[in-house]
């Protein structure tokens, strides 16, 4: 990619952007520069429309909303799963929208973590999202093991990235299960899921991925890569709203497996209302549901995923890479002497959807950006994450953000702010 580092170039790119019409569906994007979509995506008109349609079904149909209205609730999770399929490269019966990221990880651990003989360990990484680690540790102790004997956290060489060769070397014959992120949540490093999956399987180990920072921003080929299972949230790049329902994938070859945690929505839908005390599980990924779907938290996702059905994920990925490349080029050109360091991999194939900047005064700079109506995402102790979302971020937004950063540093505006972070950062 080759860019001219002027605002005029950004204006030209925006005029030629095939995704430009979608920005109008995100009115808040016109009010401020929003670069925190890797934490919580923006509200859209489509999401509001599907939410209001479900609320209207509740008002009009009451309990019959389970089977009537534009979005009948009884199989809404399955229909949303089918909309998700092109984003993760799966078969329709392998995906279900259910639970939350951590609840789904608990379900998958309860199903796939079966320590036997020497194979008792779970392999993960030292940079994993904390909630994943909490869940993993809880299942180790539920099996009567100690964290010290059954958990391997592959260390980072620099506190920000992972060496995949080190991960593969740690796949020893006492490992039962590997759980890794697709994209590291702080640095934005993208892992090679295909290579890691092949390495695990060569050693007789099951492997699953947390896709929270990759679904909706890049293509996946979970079935083709042979991934055993995966789980992700829907409130980041998928713009499903705060607390929107999560999703999971289970490879076809594992679907006959009895889910570790059962509930009545695990049932084959044809017999669910027989109310028998013997579970007849669904033959597809729906078996990995537990309780009644959170309908009002599913509803906005329907409108959002309808947008993704209209746009090839490859088009989204192309713009994402161009936006992040442009951002990094501008940072290197204008901020190299201001103490900023890009910690996200520069190679396109190694980068997720956001750019992470390290700076000793990151928290105060983040506050100064917000005062200028630029919304970043801060991660302690020194990282500013900037996530241009292809559906609503413009090239001009990127140029203006770097210009704001230059002015904040030039005029020392950040010194006006406390170095104490907010409770939610």
Task: Report what the structure shows.
This protein has 425 residues and is an alpha/beta fold. It has 2 domains: 7-31 and 312-416, Aspartate Aminotransferase, domain 1 (Alpha-Beta Complex); 50-310, Aspartate Aminotransferase, domain 2 (3-Layer(aba) Sandwich), CATH 3.40.640. 37% of the residues lie in helices and 12% in strands. The strands form 3 sheets. It has a 7-stranded mixed β-sheet, sandwiched between helices. Strand 12 (377-379) and strand 13 form a beta hairpin. The radius of gyration is 22 Å and the shape is globular. The model has no long low-confidence stretch (mean pLDDT 97).
Q: Uncertain spans, ≥5 residues at pLDDT below 50? A: none
Mean pLDDT: 97
Record the strand order, biggest sheet.
2-8-7-6-5-3-4
Q: Note the gap between the termini.
A: 33 Å
Highest CATH level, the class of the largest domain: Alpha Beta
Number of domains: 2
CATH architecture of the largest domain: 3-Layer(aba) Sandwich
Counting DSSP H or I runs of 4 or more residues, the number of helices is 14
Q: Tally of extended strands?
A: 13
Q: Could you describe the largest sheet, including whether it forms a barrel?
A: 7 strands, mixed
CATH topology of the largest domain: Aspartate Aminotransferase, domain 2
Let me know the CATH homologous superfamily of the largest domain: Type I PLP-dependent aspartate aminotransferase-like (Major domain)
Name the helix and strand elements from N-terminus to C-terminus, one letter apiece: HHEHHEHEHHEHEHEHEEHHEEHEEEH
Structural class: alpha/beta
Pfam families: KYNU_C
Subunit structure: Homodimer.
Catalytic activity: L-kynurenine + H2O = anthranilate + L-alanine + H(+); 3-hydroxy-L-kynurenine + H2O = 3-hydroxyanthranilate + L-alanine + H(+)
Keywords: Hydrolase, Pyridine nucleotide biosynthesis, Pyridoxal phosphate
């Amino acid at each position: 990619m080759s860019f001219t580092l002027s605002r005029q170039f950004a204006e030209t790119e925006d005029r030629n952007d095939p995704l430009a019409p979608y920005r109008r569906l995100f009115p808040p994007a016109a009010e401020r520069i929003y670069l925190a979509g890797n934490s919580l995506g923006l509200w859209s008109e489509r999401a509001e429309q599907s939410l209001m349609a479900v609320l209207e079904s509740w008002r009009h149909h009451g309990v019959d909303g389970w089977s009537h209205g534009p979005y009948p609730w009884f199989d809404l999770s399955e229909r949303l799963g089918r909309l998700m399929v092109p984003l993760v490269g799966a078969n329709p019966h392998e995906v279900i929208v259910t639970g939350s990221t951590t609840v789904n990880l608990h379900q998958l651990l309860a199903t796939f973590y079966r320590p036997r003989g020497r194979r008792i360990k779970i392999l993960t990484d030292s940079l994993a999202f904390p909630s994943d680690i909490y869940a993993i540790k809880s299942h180790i102790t539920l099996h009567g093991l100690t964290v010290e004997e059954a958990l391997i956290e592959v260390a980072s060489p620099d506190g920000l990235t992972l060496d995949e060769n080190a991960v593969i070397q740690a796949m020893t014959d006492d490992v039962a299960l590997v759980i890794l992120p697709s994209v590291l949540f702080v640095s934005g490093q993208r892992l090679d899921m295909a290579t890691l999956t092949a390495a695990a399987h060569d050693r007789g180990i099951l492997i699953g991925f947390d896709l929270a920072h990759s679904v909706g921003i890049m293509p996946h080929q979970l079935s083709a890569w042979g991934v055993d299972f995966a789980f992700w949230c829907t409130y980041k790049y998928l713009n499903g709203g705060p607390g929107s329902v999560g999703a999971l994938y289970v490879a076809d070859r594992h679907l006959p497996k009895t889910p570790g945690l059962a509930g009545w929505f695990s049932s084959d839908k044809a017999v669910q209302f027989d109310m028998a005390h013997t579970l007849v599980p669904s033959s597809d990924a729906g078996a990995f549901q537990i309780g009644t779907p959170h309908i009002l938290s599913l509803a906005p996702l329907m409108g959002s995923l309808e947008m993704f059905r209209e746009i090839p994920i490859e088009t989204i990925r192309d713009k994402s890479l161009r936006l992040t490349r442009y951002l990094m080029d501008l940072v290197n050109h204008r901020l190299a002497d201001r103490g900023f360091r890009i910690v996200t991999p520069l190679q396109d194939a190694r980068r997720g959807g956001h750019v992470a900047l390290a700076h000793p005064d990151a928290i105060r700079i983040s506050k100064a950006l917000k005062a200028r109506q630029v919304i970043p995402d801060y991660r302690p102790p020194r990282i500013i994450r900037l996530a241009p979302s292809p559906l609503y971020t413009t090239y001009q937004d990127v140029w203006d953000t770097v210009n704001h950063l230059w002015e904040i540093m030039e005029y020392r505006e950040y010194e006006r702010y406390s170095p104490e972070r907010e409770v939610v950062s």
